[in-house]
Amino acid sequence: MKCLRTCTLLLVCLCTFGLVLQTTFKPQLFTTHGIHRSLTINTYTDLADNENRTGALDHLRPSQKPTKVPAGHPSDWRVNELVASRLEQISNMHRERRVDCAAVIRNNKTAMAEAISVAKNLADTRDKNFNINIHLMNQTQNCSHFLKEYGFITDVLSKEEEEFPIAYSLVAYTDTETALRLLRSIYRVQNVYCIHVDISATSRTMGALTSVVSCLPNAFISSRRVNVQWGHFTVLEAELICLQDLWRHKKWKYFINLTGQEFPLKNNFELVKILKSYKGANDVHGTIKYRRLNRWNFQELPHNLTGIKGWVHVSLSRPFVDFTLHDPRSQDLLDFLKGTWIPDESFFSTLNHNTQLGIPGSFVGLNETEQRVGEKPTFNRYKMWGRNPCAKNTVRDICILSTGDLPRMVASDFLFANKFFLNEDRVVIGCLEERLMNKTRDYYMGRLQFNTSVYENSVIVKNRIRDETGG
Ligand SMILES: *[C@@H]1O[C@H](CO)[C@@H](O)[C@H](O)[C@H]1NC(C)=O
Ligand SMILES: *[C@@H]1O[C@H](CO)[C@@H](O)[C@H](O)[C@H]1NC(C)=O
Ligand SMILES: *[C@@H]1O[C@H](CO)[C@@H](O)[C@H](O)[C@H]1NC(C)=O
Ligand SMILES: *[C@@H]1O[C@H](CO)[C@@H](O)[C@H](O)[C@H]1NC(C)=O
Ligand SMILES: *[C@@H]1O[C@H](CO)[C@@H](O)[C@H](O)[C@H]1NC(C)=O
Ligand SMILES: *[C@@H]1O[C@H](CO)[C@@H](O)[C@H](O)[C@H]1NC(C)=O
Ligand SMILES: *[C@@H]1O[C@H](CO)[C@@H](O)[C@H](O)[C@H]1NC(C)=O
Ligand SMILES: *[C@@H]1O[C@H](CO)[C@@H](O)[C@H](O)[C@H]1NC(C)=O
Ligand SMILES: *[C@@H]1O[C@H](CO)[C@@H](O)[C@H](O)[C@H]1NC(C)=O
């Protein structure tokens, strides 16, 4: 509460400061070539006028029949023309004009070479004086203006998505623009978003993200902020603060954790289909084969738990989050891990692979799976380590994804990709946005189907602990 007030004050100061500096700022967000296109959209519905959006689909007006009714839309599905035209407009807004993204994604060599050179050129010629934080604090003073101009989707697009809200945590530090574009791409009114802004982030970053969040009724800044330091408990702490904050929201079905340098490969329609096809399974990576007992200082874990190491990116069912937050054994594990190195790689993985805990959706037979198929699959992240293919450069052994990675990335079954540096390549995110938005429009119009068979038939779903309802 105290922070909120301080932050608001801060915001006011910074905005005033921003106004003084105003002449040098060129609005150049969200397009690769730095020109902000103005839109005239009449179909926009103001969030503030319509906060209770649960009944939004009831107002759909009959229109032309979609060519094909995708699974997830009821058979009497009608396209609402207002929503359709808004989606078309956002789609146009997100179009990457300088390159042919569709051709790049098909790996057309000519288009690819051109796109890579455009990306390089853009990185070199960005306006260094443009301060996105100040710009955003200004732009968000009028929320309806902001949401409209920045192409946020503020309509419920299907019954199925409406009934399957997703909770997100987003750990942000420096790159406001990437975090914002990520947030925009996953934003839907039925979901919930907790943003943890590192305590050591600048007050401008905090001010900008606070003001963005103030325009989104279902997004908030975490109730507490910590100084996240790689390898330490603080990484996990930031996530747990968000999880606790999110838990108060009763409706969401799955939790996904993100960092500010990631981007979705699937849109909300697809994410809902995928998570539903998990049938309560958690997607938490784990390995026995590659764990090192020194991670736990060669000590026994509490409750005879087997220590498991895994990747930090997770998709968790609500019952799993319940256990994590409220079961005393989870608390004991957490206390034990506080004194260990990189506890965030141990906590969720250990919980998800100790079947004696009986956590719904957790994984049966990790050891056997590893011996049978080499490793346990996970769909959470397209993240290229070590000798995996990488079009450009790696940082600390992780590929920084760029335009040349688009065809591989897009063809994969992963939900999100990690990691991007916007100041090195703006085309890659531009093309991902274009494609996501095209697909959002096409699912809404009933022109596209999504096949979930790879998820439904996955190892993680087949080997899950089912909940009482058999789900
Ligand atoms: C703030 O935004 C308004 C329009 O929304 C614009 O006229 C003004 O120049 C902006 N000020 C700054 C400091 O960017
Ligand atoms: C919100 O919408 C639901 C479903 O349409 C309705 O039952 C409820 O009364 C509404 N609440 C408010 C405050 O309008
Ligand atoms: C998106 O759709 C437009 C047509 O509406 C098309 O020109 C463009 O190539 C599509 N982009 C991708 C990445 O599919
Ligand atoms: C590749 O894309 C270019 C335009 O970007 C087009 O002229 C050419 O026909 C495409 N080639 C193939 C093989 O699709
Ligand atoms: C806020 O923006 C909306 C949409 O652009 C506009 O209609 C409205 O007049 C603006 N309100 C104020 C107070 O500027
Ligand atoms: C751990 O297992 C041993 C034997 O395998 C048992 O004696 C002990 O009580 C167990 N401890 C806990 C905390 O369950
Ligand atoms: C989420 O991501 C961060 C790293 O980005 C990780 O440290 C954390 O433990 C992850 N897991 C959860 C459930 O938050
Ligand atoms: C995994 O399986 C191997 C071979 O069956 C066995 O020796 C080992 O103890 C198992 N590890 C755990 C942690 O269960
Ligand atoms: C979905 O994909 C699977 C495997 O690729 C295929 O066997 C199945 O026929 C597809 N289902 C539909 C409805 O297209």
TrEMBL record:
What's the superkingdom here? Eukaryota
**Could you list the residue ranges forming a coiled coil in this record?**
none
Instruction: Give yes or no: UniProt keyword Membrane.
Output: yes
Kindly tell me the pathway this chain contributes to: Protein modification; protein glycosylation
Q: How does it sit in the membrane?
A: Single-pass type II membrane protein
The record's subcellular locations are: Membrane
* Keywords, comma-separated and alphabetical: Glycoprotein, Glycosyltransferase, Membrane, Signal, Signal-anchor, Transferase, Transmembrane, Transmembrane helix
One Pfam family, short name = Branch
Q: Which residues form the signal peptide?
A: 1-22
**Which PANTHER family does the record associate with it?**
BETA-1,3-GALACTOSYL-O-GLYCOSYL-GLYCOPROTEIN BETA-1,6-N-ACETYLGLUCOSAMINYLTRANSFERASE 3 (PTHR19297:SF185), GLYCOSYLTRANSFERASE 14 FAMILY MEMBER (PTHR19297)
| Family as reported in the entry's similarity comment | Belongs to the glycosyltransferase 14 family.
The name under which this protein is listed is N-acetyllactosaminide beta-1,6-N-acetylglucosaminyl-transferase
Organism of origin: Aplysia californica
> Taxonomically, what lineage is the organism?
Eukaryota, Metazoa, Spiralia, Lophotrochozoa, Mollusca
